[in-house]
Amino acid sequence: MSASTGFAAVPWRGREVRVEYVRIAPERTDAPLVVFLHEGLGSVAMWKDFPERLCEAGGFRGLVFSRPGYGQSTPREPDEFWDVDFMHRQAHEVLPAFFEAIGLTEKPWLFGHSDGGSISLLYAARFPDRVAGLVGLAPHIFVEDVTVANIELARKAYLETDLPTKLSRYHADVDSAFWGWNRIWLHPPFRDWNIEAELDAIRCPVLAMQGIDDEYGTLAQIRGIAERVPGTKLLEIPHCGHSPHRDQPEQAIVAAVSFIANPGESLYLSRK
């Protein structure tokens, strides 16, 4: 299975930014394309080998990229503050511009984790005819107290421990990545952020999975998606925290591969 790396020039916020990306198995020209959207502190490198493992298991092609501000993509400007609409802007502005820059014209499957899952949902709602289907891992559709409390703990850890050093393995500018995510989630007006009503516009198949022990959100998040998007498949995973692809990777891979191959089957509903 081959992989190729590159950078795309994307116009955004009045300047051109570089977006790093990796194509997985591009030679599989007839296979479904899965686009991986990372978490709030993620990047291409943060996924490690999970995208390759999923694509190998399903015979898929993959596209993994780092959003502006993360990984090896262009960092935030020092005075650039992301507002309450930052995930909307990623879904409505950055993602379409990135797809155009790399010449993507087909309908991909979106595979998003955490903030990346929310961005996937927002993209599928705004552009319902451009998505084949969507797999969301621990996406957020509204803000919960448990989420804010643990993001506050992350801020404390960033200031008082070696967390910046650990994150620097995955980001060229670790302050850009951390503070872009942390400050907006702790910004008081962000407590009212809610995308539930926007989910009504989604028309593609959806699989939403979440760990039962998720420290950044309750199962009300994915159950709320099912209430809004008819036919949504749910997978609630025991012994799993906020990152199913790290905590229970085999279960996440099996569920995602089966869903993409047969999105109409209802094999994954699991509630405790």
TrEMBL record:
Keywords for this protein: Hydrolase
Top-rank taxon: Bacteria
Pfam families: Abhydrolase_6
Residue ranges of the TM segments: none
Keyword Hydrolase in annotation: yes
Record flagged with keyword Hydrolase: yes
Domain AB hydrolase-1: 34-256
InterPro entries, A to Z: AB_hydrolase_1 (IPR000073), AB_hydrolase_fold (IPR029058), AB_hydrolase_sf (IPR050266)
GO function terms (MF aspect): hydrolase activity
Protein's name in the database: Alpha/beta hydrolase
